[in-house]
Amino acid sequence: MSTTGESQNIEQATSAITDAPDNKTRRYDRQLRLWAASGQSALESSRTLVLSSSATATSILKNLVLPGIGHFTLLDPAITTTADAGNNFFINAQESIGKPRAAEALPLLRELNDSVDGEAVLKDVKELLGTEDGRETIRSFSLIIAHNLNKDVLDELAELLWADLTNPPLIVVRSAGFLADFFIQFHEHCVSQPHTDGTPSLRITRPFPELLRWARELDFDSVDPTTHAHIPFVVILVRAVDDWRAKHDDKLPSTSAEKNEFKAQLRAMKHKPDEENFDEAEAQAWRVWSEPTVPGEITSLFTLPPLSASGPTPNQSFHALLRTLNAFVGSPGGPGCLPLSAALPDMRTDTESYVKLQNLYRDRSLHEKEHFKGILSEIFPDIAAEVNEDELDAFLKNAHQLRLLRGRRWGEWAKDKSAIAEALQIFPRDAGTHVALTALSTLLSQAPDGSAVTADALRAEVQTLVGEGVELPEEVDTAIGELARAPTAELPNTAAFLGGMVAQEAIKMITKQYVPVNGYCVVDLIDSTTGIVGTP
Amino acid sequence: MAAATVLNGNAPSADWPGRYHHVDQILDKPGPRTDPSFLAGPGVKEFLRDQCKILVIGAGGLGCEILANLALSGFKDIHVIDMDTIDISNLNRQFLFRPKDVGKPKAIVAAEFIMSRVPGVTVTPYYGKIQDKDDDYYMQFNLVICGLDSVEARRWINATLVNLVDPENPESLKPLIDGGTEGFKGQARVILPTITSCYECSLDMLNKPTAFPICTIANTPRLPEHCIEWASVLEWPRVQGDKKLDTDNPEHIQWLYQVASARAKEFKIEGVTWSLTQGVVKNIIPAIASTNAIIAASCCNEAFKIATSSSAYLNNYFMLIGTDGVYSFTFEHQKRDDCPVCGGESLDITISREWTVDRLIEMLVERQDIQVKKPSLSSGGKQIYFQAPPQLEEATRPNLEKKVLELVEDGGDITVTATTLPFNLTLRVKYT
Amino acid sequence: MIKIWSMKKNEDAAAKKKPKTSAAQIRVQKDLTELDLPSTMKTHFPDPADLLNFTLTITPDEGMYKGGAFVFSFVINANYPHEPPKVKCIPTIYHPNVDLEGNVCLNILREDWKPVLNLNSVMVGLQYLFLEPNADDPLNKEAAEELRRNREQFIYNVKSAMRGGNIKGVQYDRVLV
User: Fold this and answer.
1) CB-based contact A224 C135, cutoff 8 Å
2) Beta-carbon separation of C136 and A230 below 8 A
3) Chain C partners of A226 at a C-beta cutoff of 8 Å?
4) Interval A138-197: pLDDT, tens
5) Cβ atoms of residues C68 and C88 within 8 Å
6) Which partners does chain A have (≥3 C-beta pairs < 8 Å)?
7) How far apart are CA B50 and CA A378, in angstroms?
8) How far apart are CA B41 and CA A482, in angstroms?
9) B211 and C26: CB-CB below 8 Å?
10) Which end of chain A has the smaller Cβ count within 10 Å, N or C?
11) Is the peptide bond before B316 cis (omega within 30 degrees of 0)?
12) A495 vs chain B: nearest CA distance in angstroms?
């Protein structure tokens, strides 16, 4: 009896050992399903500097502290006003009035997530900009976010950060009443996991030997009916293309008549009208219309000139991988196209065929990865030694949808009067709101309390920005009217909206997953619209 | 188990000078896109802060954000309903909750948090289902904001608010502001019941829930998901009998995970993990703080604009996709004539107290303006006369001889369906 | 709220009061009262006041299942037609597309369900399974195997199962009319 009891206990004990995730994984479960452990670890090693602890600034930080960034610094010399106590959720209402704002906000932000480290520095950024130590402190962060920062100070900060290619990106946020815009200043941003849902090539028209052999050797007419109804569409298409080429001078169907003929050929391969695998093949026939070319967006990355002719450039390993990819496509032992993805879509087939097909794709993709690595170690031995397997896998898996953004300096677009005039014609509301906000920041730099802001003054400023004589669309007046109504209003809802938007972009910048906005994102919370202007 | 209302601070004096410095810039004067009906100044502030009553449905990802935004905007009488308790996986975004709150009701914890942080605001929580409350309850609010993840609950509140509209009573029109998110995507919309497109009108815009063919699950699994569905759809009921699968119970998930793993191994399928198992059986939708913040802010912004008339409001749908840059689309979703909730024909009829159901049907068939053939009638969910199926026709046939008055009260409604109608016809019956 | 309230007044005519019947209920009323069933299919409501729970009996008048009466339970939830009705075969029957637990392999009951489909489509789909059992996508693998390999034997098994016979150790329910 006692042995039985013991063995039961052992059984209970082992079954109690669960594979259930630990508390940290459980806490972050809903976001790990988006950016996975790699994104999470990037967030956790990031350090963000936020200038101001306004309602907008604390809202942004809230949305970064919750998902678990590593560290944040609130840099803000302001004393909490009665107004701050009314519109900022991360201020202790009346109790905070008269006390340093950043210091009041800090504990309320930190309590959102124990694993995030934060500090409040009660200094003006001007002070930091004035010393080499201060400038070095600013540069040491991974990301800097500034909300409604004085225009001249902002220009100085932006200039400092633009000065070196390896300096961190800067997110500039401006808001008044229902209107706002934000902009990310960066030299270059590489996205190896854009999550843009592009479909990688299955190489139907350029099958690798094992796949071709399967398609050729399968006797479509003698297999039993169940097997026939479960031949994977990939194999059906490879065979159909092979047959087609044999009869058409090795060419693919190209005219619409030929495409219809090809589809008819697929239908003729059916044994029974309800064989859904053949329907699937017909629905996927578009995969046959062209050779697996390298998309233009990717080839343009191959020829991208370096950011700087001399000196260190950022994202060296990404560039090395891109150059290797280019060499891979042209290499004699390669497939002449992008590396094969091991990811196979689901299809109507039986388990055995699917697993077999999956293994063929996996083996071939590993084979091509080895080929890729061979080229990498040949051209970039240093990079080959330091690049890790996960990074390489992510790059290859996303080879068909890689993104590389080249950004602009803050304020550069403002100097291009003709571009702004053009944008006012094409996107009058978004461009109109953007120039009106720029005009407002100029007027506020003269009198931060908004006393210099009138509709006329704003209009005059806008006219200076876009050039005298340029006719302004009525949307400019609409925006100006709103800004004159509430020039210093930081509405809780606008702050919360920007808090989400800006944090979202910050997460994309930090994780290098998903694609951040490039240009000015303009928000109008009266019509409830967003728009982008000034895209490079 | 509604918690007692906890008042924080003493309400009127909680408005320290300058408290609404920011919001008042908007409320003190109109802007270029403000409707002429806007009454700038003390009147609108008083309405917002002393009279307006708003209901928040859901105290989760969107709900926490909504409550905080409303409180800061100046809404002071806020009610919140949520039937859930706090789970550790909520903490990456539901920012009013801390690890110590795990297991407690969301509505109550959220309400207490808001009241402790924002003085003078009363948040009245209800820990329970929206269906527990009747029309009188919903009638007390000026606005309703929904931050829900359930299609069913949204359909219910939508239909309830459409039903509440009484043409004689302007305040019976309760704007419904609905938000929803999924990963980096989300939407916010304004529904003016009976006036604009309603939730039911757009039901076909919803993504279909993923479902795999049952024969694939049973015989030709290819994906790890197929193995997990096999465990939950086929094996659980077979092995566990009537024991209900509780997807919140880690032991149940563990069981499914083990069964699915064994099957995957048998079929040489890779990729069954604990997390995937949980994701598939609970239909987990990725959720992050930032997207919730955007959508909740948009909802509250509309609530603020509608309550104060201080600016034009969203007409009527805002859709956001944040995966590739920031893309949003604002458009007017069209009302559907054949919407079962807000569409369909409605007819006021006055009939004799002596009329039988048979006579009424005869009249409906004869009327040129409606042209129904073979109508079936019900009232308040009760059958009056059904043309089919035979058993129900037989069961309801005796009603044909009854007086309509016996089955429908004066001013009551009759739901008429027929193949010749796009959806249904509502008759409002009065007797002479 | 002024704008909304005044708007309401202007649109009195458009505002219609609706009965307290859920959209799902009206839809079920519409579906049921417009059912156009052949004599081989009959619905039964254990509680005629409850439209959301009923059974369907199929008595095929041709094909290999002729002579049997097959009862299916229908359960419709408040989320209909966003979600399909839940359908189960009540007796244990010998059919390639129905398993021993009563699960039915019919695409429109799961992956291909759309709100534009209705109860009539589901019922017609179920009846079709008895006229044309599909051996390629089976739920009862052995039955399917038999149908593929030896149609005669399969038909024999169907008849025997319908009489309440035992096939390969599985006891089937008697479903003869």
Assistant:
1) no
2) yes
3) 135-136, 148
4) 999 999 999 999 999 999 999 999 999 999 999 999 999 999 999 999 999 999 899 987
5) no
6) B, C
7) 74
8) 17
9) no
10) N
11) yes
12) 8
The DSSP 8-state label assigned to residue A472 in this structure reads P
Domain B214-282 in CATH 1.10.10.520? The answer is yes
Active site residues of C: 105
What is the domain partition of chain B in residue ranges? 20-207+287-331, 214-282, 347-431
What CATH number labels B347-431?
Answer: 3.10.290.20
Distance from CA of A354 to the nearest CA of C (A): 16
Catalytic residue among B52, B215, B227, B342: B215
Contact C148 A229 (CB under 8 A): no
Contacts of A194 in chain B (CB under 8 A): 324
Note the CATH number of domain B20-207+287-331.
Answer: 3.40.50.720
In chain A, where the domains are located? 10-187+491-533, 209-288, 296-354+361-405, 414-485
| Residue B201 falls in the annotated catalytic set | no
Q: In the prediction, which pLDDT does B9 show?
A: 43
| Mean pLDDT of all residues in A352-364 | 96
Task: Return mean pLDDT, chain A.
Answer: 94
Question: How far apart, in whole angstroms, are the C-alpha atoms of residue C104 and residue C89?
Answer: 7
Distances from the Cα of B70 to the Cα of A195, A499, B92, B282, C137, angstroms: 34, 16, 21, 31, 54
Do residue B213 and residue C30 have CB atoms under 8 angstroms apart?
no
Exposed / middle / buried, residue A290 (Cβ in 10 Å: 0-12, 13-18, 19+): exposed
Considering only the beta carbons, identify the residue of C3, C30, C44 that sits closest to B309: C3
Q: Which residues of chain B have pLDDT under 50?
A: 1-13
Q: Is A47 on the interface with B (CB under 8 A)?
A: no
Instruction: State whether B215 and C137 contact (CB < 8 Å).
Output: yes
Q: Find chain C residues with C-beta within 8 A of A224's C-beta.
A: 148
**Which residues of chain A make contact with B18, given a CB cutoff of 8 A?**
81-83, 86
What's the CATH fold of domain C21-171? Ubiquitin Conjugating Enzyme (3.10.110)
Q: How confident is the model over A258-268, as a mean pLDDT? A: 96
Q: Does pLDDT of A2 surpass 50?
A: no
pLDDT classification of C12: cutoffs 50, 70, 90: very low
Amino acid at B246: D
User: Which chain A residues contact residue B286 at CB under 8 A?
Assistant: 30-31, 33-34
Chain A interface test: which of B102, B304, B324, B327 (most A C-beta within 10 Å) = B324
CATH says A10-187+491-533 is which class? alpha beta
Model pLDDT for residues A6-33, shown as the tens digit of each residue: 444 444 444 445 678 999 999 999 999 9
Which ipTM score applies to this complex? 0.94
Residue ranges of domains in chain C: 21-171
Q: Which among B26, B32, B268 is the nearest to A491, CB-wise? A: B26
